[in-house]
């Protein structure tokens, strides 16, 4: 029985109909909420892969801040490379190691190939070398030794991280300084591909070294072995947006790493350390560079699914 109450309100068996202004207002609020929620979800899905790499930078700055506070509290003085900071190195290494295990299920294989004396560690450069940071921290936990590392000049232009890079024994590229590191019995990590490989390599894991052989000349002069190293699925964890011919041309002109990385997917990371290539006085720098490139490419082909797949890398992580 329909009973008309007014021009804009009616009841059917005591229930309010859709023509009630209160019901319309409530319905409008629900639609606004759903549209707002959907918009925020879409923005999060679009921006999320670009925000996680920023989170890594945030963690690095937090580590630098922790180092500064630790140094002020305990009034530590002297060089950041000295053994007086081994305690804080161990704390930060443990924190990063826990993050590596939690986020990427990080594993390190082949540590028996790392000598106690000097050697040159040649590794594949991912879009964001967070896997190499994982290695540095795990290596310090296992060996209580620092692995020195060569970094691109632009890294040292970041404000506020100078003390952290020095404490982690990250140094600019210099033949003289690299020779000193090796002659003092340390392990030295170098990526011949560097930023170029980080930006323009892809899920095929091709090495972009051009004709670089300075690392091989360094090994010949220092008379040390070369050890190849690569991290499985590093390209599935982080990738680079905007790789075009124009972008490559601009990079070669400016040498600025301007392309934005994205990703941060919690894929499985396994770092593999290959067998050493021993020093041979009869091998030239050019021959040694080619031999090293072949060894690293073989290590990648042995352990990496090519082309890389984010889906399969995630499946490995949560298997």
Automatic annotation (TrEMBL):
Boundaries of every Phospholipid/glycerol acyltransferase domain copy: 119-234
Any Pfam family matching the protein: Acyltransferase
A GO MF term: acyltransferase activity
UniProt keyword terms in alphabetical order: Membrane, Transmembrane, Transmembrane helix
SMART domains according to UniProt: PlsC
GO-annotated cellular components: membrane
Superkingdom to which the source organism belongs: Eukaryota
Segments traversing the membrane: 42-70
Record-linked InterPro entries: Plipid/glycerol_acylTrfase
PANTHER family, sorted: PHOSPHOLIPID_GLYCEROL ACYLTRANSFERASE DOMAIN-CONTAINING PROTEIN (PTHR22753:SF22), TRANSMEMBRANE PROTEIN 68 (PTHR22753)
Name of protein: DGAT1/2-independent enzyme synthesizing storage lipids-like
Gene encoding the protein: LOC110080240
């Amino acid at each position: 029985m329909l009973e008309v109450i007014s021009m804009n309100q009616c009841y059917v068996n005591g229930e309010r109909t859709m023509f009630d202004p209160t019901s319309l207002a409530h319905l409008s609020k629900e639609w606004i909420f759903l549209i707002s929620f959907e918009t925020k979800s879409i923005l999060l899905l679009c921006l999320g892969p670009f925000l996680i790499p920023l989170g890594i930078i945030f963690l690095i700055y937090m580590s630098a801040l922790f180092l500064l506070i630790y140094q002020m509290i305990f009034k530590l003085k002297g060089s950041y490379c000295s053994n007086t900071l081994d305690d804080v190195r161990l704390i930060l290494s443990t924190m990063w190691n826990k993050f590596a295990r939690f986020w990427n299920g990080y594993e390190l294989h082949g540590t028996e190939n790392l000598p106690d004396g000097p050697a040159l560690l040649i590794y594949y450069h991912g879009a964001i070398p967070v896997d190499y940071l994982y290695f540095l921290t795990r290596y310090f936990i296992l060996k209580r030794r620092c692995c020195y590392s060569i970094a691109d000049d632009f890294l040292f232009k970041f404000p506020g991280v100078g003390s952290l890079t020095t404490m982690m024994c990250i140094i600019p590229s210099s033949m003289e300084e690299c020779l000193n590191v090796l002659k003092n019995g340390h392990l030295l990590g170098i990526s011949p591909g560097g930023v170029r490989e980080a930006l323009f390599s892809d899920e095929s894991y091709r090495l972009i070294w051009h004709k670089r052989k300075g690392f091989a000349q360094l090994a010949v002069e220092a008379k040390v072995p070369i050890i190849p190293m690569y991290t499985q699925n590093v390209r599935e964890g982080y990738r680079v947006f905007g790789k075009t011919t124009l972008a490559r041309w601009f990079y070669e002109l400016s040498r600025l790493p301007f392309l934005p990385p994205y990703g941060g997917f919690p894929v499985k990371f396994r770092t593999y350390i290959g067998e050493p290539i021993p020093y041979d006085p009869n091998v030239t720098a050019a021959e040694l560079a080619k031999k090293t490139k072949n060894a690293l490419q073989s290590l990648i082909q042995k352990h990496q699914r090519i082309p890389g797949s984010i889906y399969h890398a995630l499946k490995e992580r949560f298997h």
